[in-house]
Amino acid sequence: MRTVSRLALGAALLLSAGCSTLQGLIPGREAATPVIVPAPQVAAIAPGAPGDQPVWSSAAKSGAGASYEAYVDGQYRDGGRTGDVSRVWFSLADGVLTETMYGLIHEAQIKQMRFAVVVDGQVFIEGRDTTSRIEYLNTDARGRPLSPAYRVVTTDRGGRFEIEKRIYTDPDRQSLVVRTAIRGLRGDIQPYLLLEPHMANTGVGDSGDAVASGRPIIDGVEQQEPGALYAYEGDTHLVLQADRPFVTASVGYVGTSDGLTDLADGRLDHVYRSTGDTNGNIMLTAGLERLRAGETRQQDFVIGFGRSRQEARRSATESFTTGLDEVLSRFNGEGDHVGWEDYLASLTDLPRIAEQSTDGGKLAWASALMLKVQEDRTFAGALIASLSNPWGETVDATASSTGYKAVWPRDFYQVAMALMALGDVETPVAAFRYLPQVQVRADTPGNTGATGWFLQKTHVDGQIEWVGVQLDQTAMPIMLGWKLWKAGRISDAELTAMYFRMIKPAADFLVDGGKAGILWNDRQITPPWTQQERWEEQEGHSPSTTAAVITGLTVAADIARSSGDPASAARYQAAADDYASKLESRMFTTAGSLGDGRYFLRLSRNEDPNDQGLLGENNGQPGLPEDRIIDGGFLELVRYGVRAADAPSITASLPEYDDQTREARLRVRYDLNGAPGWRRYGNDGYGENIDTGGNYGVGGMTPGQRGRVWPIFTGERGHYEIARAVSEGANDAAFEAIRTTYVGGMESFANEGLLLPEQVWDGVGNPTRNQYRPGEGTDSATPLAWTHAEYIKLLRSLADRAVWDRYAPVERRYGQSGR
After folding, report:
1. Pick from 308, 605, 705, 794: most CB atoms within 10 A?
2. Average of pLDDT values for 439-458?
3. Residue 126: C-alpha distances to residues 122, 130, 321, 668, 717 (Å)
């Protein structure tokens, strides 16, 4: 292999200037057979605004990253051990850079950046026409990742070219580094870089400029630098800068005047310098140097972000000035630098619990990275659900939306508890201190109703998004606080202050309920009846929700006593006792239509589990009698200690949960490639269409939609088996069987980038255009923080031989064996 010569670069630049042939310029090229390359027509302003309706990109990420930033007094501020705070996140899918955020963690600025390659007049596009492989750039001797920096290689399916990218952020600046090596494998190739911005978290309203080369003026000083691609909306700007000039550069509107549309005939016929005064859905294109077979072209790109063009340009320029090898060293935390290696080294329990893995600890290390990556870098402790928009490639990007890049207190609790399990002594505390921002108060904007409950879903800055009342999400912040207190992470004084500020209002709501009064929601809530259970779809009495409520109230009573409020402690415990005494009478059917008729329902709409009441319609699925729908929510009763593993109501429910002979609509368990897996519940419609293979929601809500297997439930079942093994005094062989079955099962669902998905393909129906394999992550959401958290907690529970989420006061009061 050989790099491109200066002569070839000169030829490419001559073409940019209008030269029509390469005759005599490229060594070995016969003078009698010139290559005719018409010069593109150049215009100042791109036509065709506003372009096609925008969408997001695939949510099946194979990589996600951001820099490690150390707290300053529990907050994110410049000047700490890691210097200035970088607020840039990126994701990778199908070998392509996808959603890239700057600012707050949900504020996407880029949809995707990919390469198109012209070979013999045909256009081949990364992702669509290539295969890909991914690996971590920085690993230890055992192959465990030490930072979320990636090497991605895409290979043309026809064997004509290969593109290698190394991708990471600058931990000291608002910039993203993409270092490339493009290889011609067969025949001459002409590569183009395609950047599709979605500034300010939408695909509309963007403007852009493209400069192949020039002398930009920064702070009043003329700079001798290569060209750049610019995009902006309002006061949010990005610049893509390269380490050498582009052959050509253009900006246009997607579907009308963008570079990819123009390349349909294998030539870039038009070049546009700007979008002028009209904004829309735009694409930026940079033509790169032509390559012959056997040649490799290396080129570095840095995308800088800022609140002005000058600030964005400065971010990119300073990354180049520092040196991109040095930037990577700082990102990793090599030598005296503080970075990801230091964070991983601070996780005191990671090496111990990773011994329970079956893959040498690779997924454990990757999970630790993913859990910390998915924290906002402005609001310390703001833990989101996933750096993705589920089924993003068919999701409209006209209006700003967070997708899963938002705070749900339930997912939040899972992640904070997993970080505690790893030995992170700072992030869970920051998370606990963050929680008041998402609790409903009298001064919550628009609130006219009850206080104390936690908002269903918010932006990381607390902006309200969804307002359903989910009682488990009100209990879990209390549970987290108790765990931190007992672990010595927060003091008695801080706990007492948080009791009166946050915990007491939450516990009061779990006892008294009240009428919601935010936006559309004016429902009366009477605990333990919940307006929405953990899947945010149905109202009624839920085993998983009630398990959290009983636990939250029991530990709230402990906190109240410590805080000098014995009257409230007695009230909270009395309510928990009442809810616990009525669990089976409210939610356990003795006359069900499945199996022997004895099992916990997914949900009972009222207090009679035998009345075969109809559940509501959801996700295109008809409302069926509640006795036909089962899920694994009852296992949460055992996890927290509300019921013993051998309680008759629990053991009676297991056969119905595990029945694999049931019709596909109602069946929950699917063993995939030897790993046990479960759907959320029977009749779930949150997934791809079994008839058309279409993504969730495409064409409206239809009965063909089907929710798939969630790896979370493999971990949940593993936790139940640990609880049972502990209660039975099982031997080492029993715990080893749990490790190989449930830990190994979860590991089998990870993708090549060691990311765990929300859902994996269950083999039912049309496998969609992606041709999913059983057990492979779908386009739902990857990485899902909750899945990684469940995996880490499963490792911790096995290492401790005690369920990590077990609450001792709850187990002592309710969960004794045989109850």
Report:
1. 794
2. 98
3. 13, 5, 30, 37, 39
